[in-house]
Amino acid sequence: MPQESSRQPESKRVIVIGAGIVGLCTGLFLQRSGHSVAIVDPKSPGRSTSFGNAGTIAVGSVYPVSTPGTWKQVPGMLFDPAAALKLRWSYLPKMTPWLLRFLTSGMPSRVEQISRELALLNRDAVSAHEVLLKAYDINDIVKPTGWLKVYSTKAAFDKGAAERAVQTRLGFKVEIMGEDEIRQLEPGLAHKFLHGSFHPENAFVTSPAKLSDAYAEAFVKLGGTILAERVTRFEFDDVRPVRAVTDLGMHGADIFVICAGAWSNRLTQMLGTDVLLDTERGYHLNLNVEAGPGLRRPTVIGEQGFVLAPMQDGMRLTSGVELAGVDAPPDFRRIYNMLPHAKAALPGLGDEVTREWLGYRPSMPDSKPVIGRSPKFNNVFFGFGHGHIGLTLSARTGQLIDDLVSGRDLNIDLSPFRAERF
Length: 422
Ligand SMILES: Cc1cc2nc3c(=O)[nH]c(=O)nc-3n(C[C@H](O)[C@H](O)[C@H](O)COP(=O)(O)OP(=O)(O)OC[C@H]3O[C@@H](n4cnc5c(N)ncnc54)[C@H](O)[C@@H]3O)c2cc1C
Fold this sequence. Notes:
Elements: E1 13-17, H1 21-32, E2 36-40, E3 56-57, H2 74-79, E4 85-87, H3 92-104, H4 108-122, H5 125-135, E5 142-143, E6 147-151, H6 154-159, H7 161-169, E7 175-178, H8 179-185, E8 195-199, E9 203-205, H9 208-221, E10 225-227, E11 231-236, E12 241-246, E13 250-252, E14 255-258, H10 264-270, E15 278-289, E16 299-301, E17 306-311, E18 314-323, H11 333-337, H12 339-345, E19 349-363, E20 370-373, E21 380-384, H13 390-405
Parallel strand pairs: 1-2, 1-14, 2-10, 4-18, 6-16, 14-21
Antiparallel strand pairs: 3-9, 5-9, 6-8, 7-8, 11-12, 12-13, 15-18, 15-19, 16-17, 17-18, 20-21
Helix pairs in contact: 1-9, 1-13, 5-13
């Protein structure tokens, strides 16, 4: 059923490049509006970065990654093998322009502004997913559990005060918790957590892979096409791109949408726009809970900054940011270093690791995505660069791109998310 609209948009042939959660949502919203959509990706839907995240639709996560104290972490990034934010030496020259912008995005005035701008997108994050969940009867994947952050010391808890203040100021719910309340919410946690915050508006995707599968299935049922091909270049007429060339064929379209995650810049460059996009790589380990109640919701262990998320296929431990580009081999040492801390936080956790995984958060230096029309071609749209909140904002991004392509009035100013802001 098409989205409500004052008029039906003219049906267009659309190619969405990338079948991560952002491309899937975008393709699905466009198909619902009556366009004829093909999503192109050599990987199966949702099996890249969108596979392995912590599963949180993190409505209140509007605080950027770079904050006023981040510059002090630079020596640690380079020299401390256990740092939460790690930069590989070999990648430093390539990363420097991004890194400089990243650090300036952490100035106090910028942090406040970025949070305000992200809040405009985030506040509709859950409701945008709900449109799809309700329309396609997807009932057992997304749960209204909220999420919890816990700390064993007051000093560590206090470090999150600025973020909590911004969240509260922007109207997101933050409930401060003490030892008893934490224990009531999560009886499986060790009894050392004395301080915490509960974020009740956040939802939990208990299997990001199943959510991608469900959206892909709905898309195909509506008549959409998924092509297992890699886009290698574009062909142009006198004024604009008219065909995407892949490793297996050529596909003409009226509209092209780039949702290729951390690889998006390779495609935007082919379309005349260089975007300051890089990747904040992130790892996960999958474990089983062997004793005790486990967890009911994703829980951040504040001191070390890792997340334990009780997924349908096991307890997922996610942690850290590694700045090393999309081509460097994985280095699982830091996530394995977290294992003893994870066991100390959740004593029922078993020892056996059933999966180790690396993903590529597509990240702009200011933690804001790129959403909107290409500055070069009016038939090209961008939806990428969502960093730590791509699952969160995937459905909202799809709605907005659909509104743009379908010529509807937007109820939001997208200029803070334009590609050419750096
Ligand atoms: C450890 C970790 C934890 C996270 N936790 C959360 C969380 O709790 N909540 C949250 O909101 N976000 C979280 N994220 C972030 C989130 O996972 C990402 O922002 C999101 O998955 C990005 O989705 P995407 O569709 O943009 O990219 P991807 O899922 O990476 O998809 C991009 C796709 O584009 C395809 N592609 C690339 N080049 C081409 C080409 N030339 N032709 C065709 N296809 C191409 C790729 O094959 C890929 O499938 C986490 C990330 C990590 C790493």
